[in-house]
Amino acid sequence: MMKVRLLAHTPDPERLIAAAAKNCYSSVDVDGILDGLTEEKTQSFLQMLTEIGHESPIEHVSFTFAIEGVSRSLLAQITRHRMASYSVQSQRYVREKGFEYVVPPEIEKIPAAKAQFIQAMEDDQRTYEALTATLMEGYLAENLAAGMSEKAARSKAEKKAIEDARYILPNACTTRIVMTANARSLQNFFRLRCCNRAQWEIRALAEEMYKLVYAVAPTLFRHAGPPCVSGPCTEGKMTCGQASQVRAHYLELQNAE
Predict the structure, then answer these.
(1) Which residue numbers are catalytic?
(2) Residue 65: beta bridge partners?
(3) Per the count of CB atoms within 10 A, which of 22, 49, 99, 250 is most buried?
């Protein structure tokens, strides 16, 4: 099951962005850059930045998430967003014994398809364990022949076996990610991945992340989400045609506790 936590974020993010904007548009020195930035003034600066499309000041704040219960398929998608930092659970060093996996909803709702999918996962698990054991046996023999102690030879053999056996693990296999991105990158991420045309799993993740950052910085992320939330759909002929429903959905997300 997907789980997302906001581990940390830049303190008082909206006020910091307002300070950066103030630096751009006034002659105030660094000693007074935070002076006078009331909640009202801060919101005014952020609204101005949105209206004129000045996005660089929002790069000064960042958010760090802990994500688990997502698939390796999602990992391949999310790491295409290059303006972020990722730390991912390693299949090279962590043995996937009894690995968990994500079942796509469209497979879940068809009993025969779900049964086939689960059977494939169970087969993969058995093959992974069998291959790991076979590789360990061979590597252990090599290490002992090279004069290593039993303990050292076994430890090295297991690490190498896991490293090679991971190649047969499925995309459905779950992983854990720690991700850090600045607010501008997150807004771009939400524009692309909150859209109804985005793949279902990464869209679900993007919405969870959106709810977390909106609770911290509602003015900053008020117009975040797919393009149709605050303007016209940008998908052209590929539009889902549900802009009004999407806007209503994001109002619900913003008002969720």
Answers:
(1) 193
(2) 6, 179
(3) 250
